[in-house]
Amino acid sequence: MSLHAAAQSFTVSCNGESVPLYEQNDVPASYKLSSYKYARLVYSGEPLNVSITADFSVVANDWDIAPYSYQIQGNLSDKTISFTIDRTGYVVVRFKKGQDFTRRVVLFIEEPEIMPDGDFVNLSSYCVDNTGQYNETKRIQKALDDAADAGKVVYFPDGTYKVSLLRIPSNSRVHLSKGCRLLADPEDFESFQNNDNTGTNRFIYIKDAENIQITGLGTFDGNGTYFRGVFDPNGSNGIGAMRVLFIVNSKNITFDGILLKDAARWNTQIVGCQDITFRNCKMLNNPNTNANLTNFDGWDPDASQRVLIENCFGWAGDDNVAVKCVGTGSPKVIQDVEDITIRGCVFLSKKSSLKIGTETRCNNMKNITFENNDVIEADRVIAIEVQDNAIVDGVLYKNNRSDYNYPDAQKRGIYFNLTERNAGQGYLGKILNVRIEDCTFNSVFPNKFRIYRDPAMTVIGDLQVTIKNLRVAGNIVNNLTTNYFDTANCNGVIVFE
Question: Model pTM?
Answer without folding.
Answer: 0.96
